[in-house]
């Protein structure tokens, strides 16, 4: 069996920022189409402090496939999103937040791509890169659909791999007035803590999370915080708030007041957010958010009704992370790399 090995450098050489974000917009649209995605995931604690092991599997059907039956994400139905499907994509890995203090990635993962017809393994990709790009790219896709119109200040809470990638991708595909960033490390070390790739971008270090929120039209939380880093009282009217790290019931990057201020609340997949997203679970339990009001991001991407923040209306989006996001990005990287002769072919 021959497989194509794609490193971090191979993946980044294959896809530019616009293509990364496009795969994530497509992933969210597919997730919102009944019958287009079949996926499952599991995770459990390891014996390392705050460590977690996870596994995702997903495949998306193409526009000419027979789309009947029921899938784990979307239930029964017929798809309408045009375009090709994906191979069967598996991601396995671990998350260790303490790695940040060691100077190591908090996520280590491997992605395996299988041919959709034969099931044969055709590629193995750097899963840490796929995870970083798909998570940050997904948040950029949400920002493009929900943020106030026109160039404005984008605030980013966090300064790690995801926060850095979010800034890089946003700067590449969206006009931005400036970025404000804050993290405990930035507070202690200032701009010296920033990734060198941000050196030529209009990035400033905020004095505090409150300062960042008060000066930003879009606020992105790229943290693993178990307690709120954004308070609703700090937000300007008409702000878009995008959360990335509140993917479990015990992680909560925004407070109840922030959830209560939202004129509209979106999630990558509402049914998953209602089970496991910390701010959503807390807001529903407190009675400040109606579970029926949590909308799929696909609805905003399709258009047809007001979605964007502005005019005094605050909008909140929660990203839990979906296997189809890995699948769309990994399949695009694999097919492009194969066509362009990139990567290393290995016989197993």
TrEMBL record:
GO CC annotation: cytoplasm
Span of the signal peptide: none
One Pfam family cited in the UniProt record for this chain: OCD_Mu_crystall
InterPro entries the record matches: NAD(P)-bd_dom_sf, ODC_Mu_crystall, ODC_N
Domain of life of the organism encoding this protein: Bacteria
Name of the protein described by the UniProt record: Ornithine cyclodeaminase family protein
Species: Nonomuraea rhodomycinica
């Amino acid at each position: 069996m021959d497989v194509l090995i794609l490193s971090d450098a191979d993946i980044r050489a294959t896809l530019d920022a616009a293509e990364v974000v496009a795969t994530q917009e497509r992933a969210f649209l597919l997730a919102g189409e009944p019958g287009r995605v079949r996926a499952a995931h599991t995770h459990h604690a390891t014996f390392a402090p705050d460590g977690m092991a996870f596994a995702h599997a997903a495949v998306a059907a193409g526009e000419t496939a027979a789309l009947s039956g029921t899938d784990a994400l979307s239930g029964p139905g017929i798809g309408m999103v045009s375009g090709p499907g994906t191979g069967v994509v598996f991601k396995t890995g671990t998350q260790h937040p303490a790695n940040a203090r060691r100077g190591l990635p908090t996520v280590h993962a491997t992605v395996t791509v299988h041919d959709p017809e034969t099931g044969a393994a055709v590629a193995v990709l750097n899963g840490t890169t796929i995870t970083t790009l798909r998570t940050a790219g997904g948040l950029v896709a949400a920002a493009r659909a929900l943020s106030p119109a026109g160039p404005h200040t984008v605030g980013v809470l966090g300064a790690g791999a995801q926060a850095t990638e979010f800034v890089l991708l946003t700067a590449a595909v969206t006009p931005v007035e400036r970025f404000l960033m804050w993290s405990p490390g930035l507070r202690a070390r200032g701009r010296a803590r920033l990734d060198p790739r941000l050196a030529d971008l209009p990035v400033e270090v905020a004095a505090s999370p409150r300062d960042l929120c008060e000066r930003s039209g879009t606020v992105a939380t790229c943290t693993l915080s178990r307690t709120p880093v954004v308070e609703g009282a700090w937000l300007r009217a008409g702000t878009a708030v995008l959360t990335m790290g509140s993917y479990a019931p015990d992680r909560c990057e925004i407070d109840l007041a922030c959830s209560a201020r939202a004129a509209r609340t979106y999630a990558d997949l509402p049914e998953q957010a209602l089970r496991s997203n910390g701010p959503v679970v807390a807001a529903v339990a407190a009675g400040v958010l109606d579970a029926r009001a949590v909308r799929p991001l696909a609805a905003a991407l399709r258009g047809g009704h007001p979605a964007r923040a502005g005019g005094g209306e605050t909008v909140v989006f929660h990203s839990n992370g979906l296997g189809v996001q890995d699948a769309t990005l990994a399949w695009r990287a694999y097919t492009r790399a194969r066509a362009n002769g990139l990567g290393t072919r290995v016989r197993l």
